């Protein structure tokens, strides 16, 4: 049986843009923790450090979708260098202000401007979508990207703390700026896989895509789902400290990412016939239910076990949400819509961590877990109420009846089987065309073949 993850990287340029995208997305979580560590070391004021780091995070959550909105209209190659340049310069100015003892307000101004950092996770997903739109490989690509997100959010904060404490306080933000600049510089020149700018439809209002019902409801669902992950960050630290070994908090973070990563990879290898709105309800239900065992935790081992189970539902739910976004959003607004999903998640993590911290300080560790339970309940309510609406939008976009049991619906097993046969025939035809063109011209296929399955003898290009 072919490895589905090897298969997605057979597309020309896939390995190159994915690697460059990984390098460029490490700075986001590294910058937040780097600012926090740098200012706590240089000023000794944890409140100030938290506020400035929070300013960057929420600025990124708001400005990131605006950058992606312009990307949808102008293209990645024209927008990413400008947004990256402003963000890198602002980060450099923030380091300078922190080092020279500049007025406090300057820290907030440059943290705010640093939030123009582009959402590279959305940029990478946009390229996968352009290559595999309407094909099963897209689900595998989205699953892999969710696992990559998990890895970056485990590796980057730990690396930031290590750099700023072992070398010098400004080391982590400096490294984040360098990684962002290098990653984007490697990513942008890869024109073969860059999504072309899609023409706007006649019915398009020009309003931000977040005002559309599917995008808004899914972003809110991720906001409350992210609050659970934020609670894990705060409570892992607080609970480990209560148990007398603060260093064990790293184990809690790693186990959560491990559970999410394993399930994400497994989910990407499956070819399910369940409608996406139903999968969303299943995933969010699992996420909500797995918050209840937190009330029974009484040691760090139990905490790690519960966190692992809670993480199992995270990545698959993220994959399902991205799949719904891809199918319900006009192509000319897709990057912006995906960025709103990531922004909702990031905002939820920040809010969950902050609220959990306040609750722990006021009422004790046990009550901190109530934040996750409440967030899970709200996320489940949002998923249940939005599922019928999402099904209608999916049906409208595909020109099909809204009922998931209708024979014409792609969720129907028989129809899906027929579609797979059609895809197989289409892929075989494309492979023959690619072989003929290769024989005739001798060199490489043009950009138009990016979305088809390459011939097995082709070696993916770095561009």
Features:
disordered C terminus, 3 domains, 463 residues, Growth Hormone, Chain: A, mainly alpha
Description:
By secondary structure, the chain is mainly α. It has 3 domains: about 15-135 and about 165-190, Growth Hormone, Chain: A (Up-down Bundle), CATH 1.20.1250.20; about 210-410, MFS general substrate transporter like domains (Growth Hormone, Chain: A); about 415-440. It is about 75% helix and about 0% strand. The protein has helices at about 5-10, 15-25, 25-45, 45-75, 75-100, 105-115, 120-130, 135-165, 170-185, 215-240, 250-270, 275-290, 300-310, 315-330, 335-365, 365-400, 415-440. The protein is globular and about 60 Å long.
| CATH fold title of the largest domain | Growth Hormone, Chain: A
**Structural class label:** mainly alpha
Q: Which spans of ≥5 residues are poorly predicted at pLDDT below 50?
A: 402-463
State the CATH architecture of the largest domain. Up-down Bundle
- The residue-averaged pLDDT reads 78
Quantity of strands, as a count: 0
> For the report, how would you describe the main beta sheet?
none
Order of helices and strands: HHHHHHHHHHHHHHHHH
Gap from first CA to last CA: 29 Å
Domain count: 3
Shape: globular
The CATH class of the largest domain? Mainly Alpha
Helix proportion of residues, in percent? over 70%
